[in-house]
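Issue 218. Parser rejects a valid record. Input:
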Amino acid sequence: MRKFYTPQDLARIAGVDPNTVRRWIKSGIVRGQKVGGRYRIPASEMLRFISEHEPDTLAWDGWVYEGLAQPHEADAIAAALREEGREVIQVELPEGVAIWSRGR
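Output the parser choked on:
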């Protein structure tokens, strides 16, 4: 399972040039890091971006959008998904916590 993605991956989702994504990383709009001289974006950041900017995307690269939960509910939902053997990423957004899972 991929843990990091390229600027090209995010550019395809956002409909922009990869250089735009690199500028976003440099300016802090998107969290990324250089690995071996090339930018890489963590899976959690990709899902944060999708949750905020592409809300109609319900599945991406094996990840499935489980829904938006209130912070006090998110951990219980994530725990239940993990019990099913799923990998879970919780993305904090102003309106709540987006929950994404993949596996089994």
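Fixed in the parser; the record now loads. The chain has four helices and seven strands.
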